[in-house]
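Ticket 4471: requesting a sanity check on a complex prediction with magnesium ion. Repro inputs:
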Amino acid sequence: MALIEARSIGIDFDIGPPWARRKLRALQDVDLSVNEGEIIGVVGESGSGKSTLGNLCIGRNTPTMGELLYRGRPLNSIQRKDRAGKFAAVLQHPKWSLNPMLRVRDSVAEPLQITGTAGSKADTTRIVGAMLEQVGLRADFQERYPHELSGGQRQRVSIARALITKPEFVLFDEAVSALDVSVQAQVLNMIKDLQADAGFSAIFISHDLAATRYVASRIAVLYAGRMVEDAPAESFYGLAGHPYSQGLQFASGLTDDEALELRLGQIDLTAKGCPLAERCPKVMEACRASMPQMEQRDGRRYACFAG
Ligand SMILES: Nc1ncnc2c1ncn2[C@@H]1O[C@H](COP(=O)(O)OP(=O)(O)OP(=O)(O)O)[C@@H](O)[C@H]1O
Ligand SMILES: [Mg+2]
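Returned structure tokens:
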């Protein structure tokens, strides 16, 4: 059984001022299952719904359409106290997860307090010290404040904080995007090692296809709130199935085949066909008439008439 299974999930947000409320469909019709021990890379351009999907998977938001299951049960039917410590998130900016007023020890230990699993002070020092060592920091970093750390070190502390309760599922949302490329590679390798060690499942969100390649065994591609491809990393990085994924590969320099380039432009969400139709090099008549559904093709799923 999948650890997390999204069945046709979607969410509408109420946006606009109080006198002109309207709904924004940030995500729709997304099917995704995350198996135990699996890291799924989620890619797509800004506003495509990556963070929205991630937040639904860790129960921070509840889908307004479809069902999100955790071990076969609706996630929102599970009491908060029974979920505590099982889900964790590492975000782009450590300043969002690290309180500048707290020493590293207290930031890393806080989730233990929240879940009521903190022991004595000596125990905490020992457990936090061991966790810091796992993320490549000496135990004496416990005494420091976030401003005394480099960006890479702060992100290591955020990861230690996320993993201290031994979560089953971790959301990495642009977790390395703010770091220098050389530091990124170190942190990505570390995430891989930590996963192999602790066995958690994860969603690794990034707009950088090279970063997801390091850590993910499967890649899900979002476009305008819809999933357009879900493929094993090996076949995805050979050549993706969906023209949009291929366009992302071109944009990231993973291929130099200009025939795969996508024109930039407005997304027409009111179109009844594929929202990509006006940008796609492979557009056909059918694409403007209706939205293609996800279909299984040579071991991957993607939503394209032309494919
Ligand atoms: N809480 C919210 N209230 C209203 N609209 C929201 C909310 N969260 C996200 N949105 C909207 O939903 C859409 C998807 O946003 P989301 O943050 O998931 O995109 P993203 O793929 O993570 O983008 P980025 O790469 O910029 O982080 C956007 O149009 C965004 O403005
Ligand atoms: Mg985001």
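Notes from triage: DSSP finds eleven helices and twelve strands in the chain. Leaving this open until the requester confirms.
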